[in-house]
Amino acid sequence: IEAGFSEMRNELKSQDALWRRIQLECQQLHTELLKIREYKDMQEIQMKHQSSCVQLTEQLENQSTELLLLAQSQECQQQELKKIRTHLYQEEQSHCSEQERMKTEISDLTEELHQKEITIATIMEKASLLEKQLKTELEMKDKLLAKQQLLDFQYKVIKSENTRLKEMV
């Protein structure tokens, strides 16, 4: 987008330079036109060189035609320049609004990420507590199992002793 803006700015500068050159040429032509008119007036007063007057008149008409063409061209170029400036302004506005939208989206995503990090930390803390509880319960069950096995062994010993005593009696 910035390359497009740069290209449009360069185009605007080029159009501006052309516009100034056309204005300068118009001023020069106008100055020449005034000089030609003065010369023509002098010729009419002196009534000499009528062919020169005709020639000067033709040149004046040609230059007037050129001046009109330049003025029309200048007007077209000004309209084109205005269109380019409008388009450039619209592009800049679009770019700015896109940047704002992206900033908002990044901010929202950052907030969402922060919330997820908090959630993960909470879950990890709970998992750690559950793991400790599970280890404690496993240790208690291991102790109870060992106690149960000891009691089973003692029961078997007593039972075999009982059986032996019964046989003796």
Automatic annotation (TrEMBL):
<feature type="coiled-coil region">
    <location>
        <begin position="99"/>
        <end position="126"/>
    </location>
</feature>
<dbReference type="GO" id="GO:0005737">
    <property type="term" value="C:cytoplasm"/>
</dbReference>
<dbReference type="GO" id="GO:0007099">
    <property type="term" value="P:centriole replication"/>
</dbReference>
<protein>
    <submittedName>
        <fullName>DEUP1 protein</fullName>
    </submittedName>
</protein>
<dbReference type="GO" id="GO:0098536">
    <property type="term" value="C:deuterosome"/>
</dbReference>
<keyword id="KW-0963">Cytoplasm</keyword>
<keyword id="KW-0175">Coiled coil</keyword>
<dbReference type="GO" id="GO:0005814">
    <property type="term" value="C:centriole"/>
</dbReference>
<dbReference type="GO" id="GO:0098535">
    <property type="term" value="P:de novo centriole assembly involved in multi-ciliated epithelial cell differentiation"/>
</dbReference>
